């Protein structure tokens, strides 16, 4: 496991409830959530299967499932995924959440090409790409991410 992966897992394992509450903690973060949802509603295809890559405790997974999308949640941190399972059940959207997978956005080989109609990779994940680019070694492979989807990529 790379140094960046160890640090990421450590940080997000400490307090998954904090990550769940992050987008409601103050008006600034609520604006982030509302703005993101506005653009997702505007630009996502009208239906289909969405990969929420690095989706943490599943806040966007749940919202998309409520909108009728089928969603696969992928996250690196077991603690986030355990919280996501509880929140998904509480929201009553289990039938639209097709899978909850522990895995890294740096290795999407488990998915066939063109598996998804859209991919979300929100939050700090784009920073992983930038760190890799600056260091001349891609940490987040955007080409692989695009190949696993159909048309839409939200970063």
Short overview:
This protein is an alpha/beta fold and 155 residues long.
Structure, explained:
This protein is α/β, with parallel strands linked by helices. It has a single domain (3-34, 47-154), classed as Vaccinia Virus protein VP39 (Rossmann fold), CATH 3.40.50. 47% of the residues lie in helices and 18% in strands. It has helices spanning 3-14, 16-21, 27-43, 59-66, 78-91, 125-134, 142-147, and strands at residues 49-53, 70-75, 97-102, 116-120, 149-154. The chain has a 5-stranded parallel beta sheet with strand order 3-2-1-4-5. Helix 4 links the parallel strand 1 (49-53) and strand 2 (70-75). Helix 4 (59-66) packs parallel to helix 5. The chain is globular, with a radius of gyration of 15 Å. The relative contact order is 0.17. The model is unreliable at 126-140 (pLDDT under 50).
